[in-house]
Specification:
With about 400 residues, this protein is an alpha+beta fold. Helix content is about 15%, strand content about 30%. The mean pLDDT is about 95.
């Protein structure tokens, strides 16, 4: 089924001088790798592995990923109240050493960006952004707030999978243990150098992210140490392909792909990230006007037959109502799964829809809520260890 995951025939060469290849690039680059660009950074999509085999390594062992997500640093005495103004979720009540998923909206309620906050110190935060111009947006709304917005030049390695905790315990010489829960974070040492580690990731498997501290980091030493400990335990290195399958199964959304400014948080099923009880924030007035009914624009879809990225979705033979923003073969569910972006909000689970296949024929599919399984996030919390 690997042809479902990545069509390398449509790949295009891009000058390596145009974007940031990152400090780990030379440690895994080889002829035949396929790369993408995200947040102005290169990242590996394919490194030559069998995709389904790498997926099962992620589900049963552990996989290391070099990911392009970009931390932006916001610090200063007014940082907490400033961030409460920018983001739809309350940030000022976070504890130091914790993470929180949060979104920012435009004045009209459309989603601007999503990402994860970490509170490093009382008045120092990192927001780990996906693709988008967050730093420019933050500075444009800085006004008279006493805050400093900067790029800490941190790079991110993810170690994801059920044995990731065993690996990270050894990497930190036991400084991280079972008390380090889901969305916990903090400064630790790997190979006698400081890094910032969080129990998060983009797979909804049990996993960790290792954030470097810019020019203070010896990247070769970090890379070698992770591999020296992880490989004997069954860890492999892979590109986005295996991660993308798992993130779709888990209902993890990609900014500007699965949602964008044309959708408000309720459209995307992210209404829980809007705190209308807090003081004024960007987009609050518009968000108050949206009715929180059981209607969305974004749903999951399943099919026994192959479905294709960007395929159109039909209510009747001729009435187009949306398209697939993402899709993949799910080895765990043994079927095809994906996301549908509908043209308007509705309770689409009550409707029967059809999706174009690669030949333009229409397939009967089922509309479901996201995620496709593990709705309580028991796997990343370490509470569900029943691996297929």
């Amino acid at each position: 089924m690997t042809s479902v995951f990545l069509d390398k025939s449509v790949s295009l060469p891009i000058s390596i001088n145009r974007f940031d290849k990152g400090p780990y690039f030379d440690f895994y680059h080889q002829k035949g790798n396929t790369y993408g660009v995200y947040a102005d950074r290169y990242f590996p999509i394919s490194v030559g592995n069998n995709v389904e085999s790498a997926y099962w390594s992620l589900r049963r062992k552990a996989v290391m990923y070099d990911v392009p997500e970009k931390p932006i640093q916001i610090e200063g005495p007014q940082a907490p109240e400033y961030l409460d103004k920018i983001f739809s979720r309350k940030i000022s009540d976070m504890k130091v050493g914790r993470g929180k998923y949060a979104i920012a909206c435009y004045e009209n309620g459309g989603i601007f960006i999503d990402g994860v906050f970490f509170r490093l110190e009382e008045n120092k935060f990192w927001y780990v952004q996906p693709d988008g111009h967050l730093q420019t947006w933050l500075k444009a709304h800085q006004e008279n707030y006493n805050v400093k917005i900067s790029d800490p030049n941190s790079r991110v390695i993810q170690i994801q999978g059920p044995i990731s905790k065993d690996i990270i315990i050894q990497l930190t010489n036991g400084s991280i243990d079972d008390n380090f829960k889901y969305y916990h974070s903090g400064y630790f040492k790997i190979a006698n150098q400081s890094v910032y580690i969080s129990r998060t990731g983009w797979t909804s498997e049990l996993g960790f992210e290792i954030y470097t501290l810019g020019s203070d980091t010896n990247y070769k030493k970090i890379w070698d140490t992770i591999n020296e400990i992880g490989k004997p335990m069954g860890m492999i290195f892979d590109g986005l392909e295996s991660m993308d399958i798992r993130r779709i199964e888990a209902g993890i959304l990609d900014n500007n792909t699965d949602f964008d400014q044309s959708m408000n948080p309720y459209d995307a099923g992210l209404g829980s990230l809007v705190d209308l009880s807090k003081d004024n924030f960007i987009g609050k007035k518009a968000l108050e006007s949206f009715e929180k009914k059981n209607e969305k624009k974004l749903y999951g879809i399943t099919s026994e037959k192959p479905i294709v990225h960007r395929s159109n979705v039909y209510l009747t033979q001729t009435q187009k109502v949306g398209y697939l923003s993402a899709c993949t073969w799910s080895p765990t569910l043994n079927k095809f799964v994906g996301y549908v972006r509908f043209d308007h909000a509705n309770n689409w689970k009550e409707h029967e829809v059809k999706v174009e296949d690669v030949n333009g024929n229409l397939l009967e599919c089922e509309i479901v809520d996201l995620p496709f399984y593990d709705k309580e996030k028991l796997i990343p919390k370490g509470l569900d260890k029943n691996i297929p």
